[in-house]
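Sample 3 of the quickstart, ligand iron/sulfur cluster:
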Amino acid sequence: MPLPSALNLLELSFKDLEVLLVEQGLRPAHAKPLFQAMHHRASANLKGDEGGNFPAPLQRWLEANLGGRLRHDVLMPRQGQVSGDALAQKHLLALEDGQEIETVLMTYAQRHTVCVSTQVGCAMGCVFCATGQMGFVRHLRAGEILAQVHLARRLLATQGQRLRNVVFMGMGEPLHNYDEVIKALHLLLETRGANLGAEHISISTVGVVPGILRLARERQPCNLAVSLHGSSEEERAKLIPVNQRWPLSELMAACRQYQQLTGKRIFFAWTLIEGINDHPEQAQRLIALLRGIDAHVNLIPLNETAGYQGRESAEDSCSRFHRLIQQAGIACTIRQRRGIDVAAGCGQLKAQRRPRQRAEPQQGEEPIAG
Ligand code: SF4
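Result:
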């Protein structure tokens, strides 16, 4: 039976894959070797998957259909850079429609983490962020998100290493693309596939309140990271325009509700910008905001971008801020940055190639920022 429309095999659940194969005149049992090839072995080439050992009818069907309406790996590596210390690799990847995204693979204490993009560009417009400076182009599909993880797994496998963590923290606001992100999350958790533990997957948001509440209601199995960067409405709105839509007060109420419903610790990110948000008084206000929340604060010195004047905080300002948060009994780390020399901050590599490209939202797409 001909395929009804273009289909990316990578984004089908195990059950949907079984249904598709049966519709195509194959046996449901063929789903297991195919699913394992895609999600367990992260195979890049299903037609020639060495470990696949596919049944002959499945092999014939793949050969007849892959590359036509049937898709699998939709990423084309355009540019890769490895940092001088070899602890960060940044990959610029082209999608089928020619759009580009970035994926960063980082190593901390011999543990490998991939930071994946969830959108081309971003509608949130955070002033210090290279992706925010580009504007929003489109959402990624779950298959395009997963393909980034599988690329990282293949790269690590060539070094005899395994991927430990996935963070949805690259280009784009994950909760603005909720359904595709959650679909990708569940495929990563599949025990017949990548089988990553929920404790190793984090979804980051700049404060999309309805998305946080939905994660909580649905008890989605992942960690939540919330970017704050400002401890008063006014200061935060200057850095994150979306604060005008979902003010800090609403965001903190949503975080409390999330914690009540899920019982999970929340990770809060704070980009330290010299003279903007690294003052002791701002640390004290942050402490007050977090009172009663089981929180871990990650302090991240700014990754400087050409489109923003701010500078990273000096080392002693970072240490002072860090000390104050810790003294208040709140877990806090200064995040070691990875890959400064490969422009590893979100959107920086793409911005270097196409400086200040600003795209309009697609038809029907509501710009959130500003
Ligand atoms: S920091 Fe994240 S949410 Fe803000 S503009 Fe950049 S990609 Fe979007």
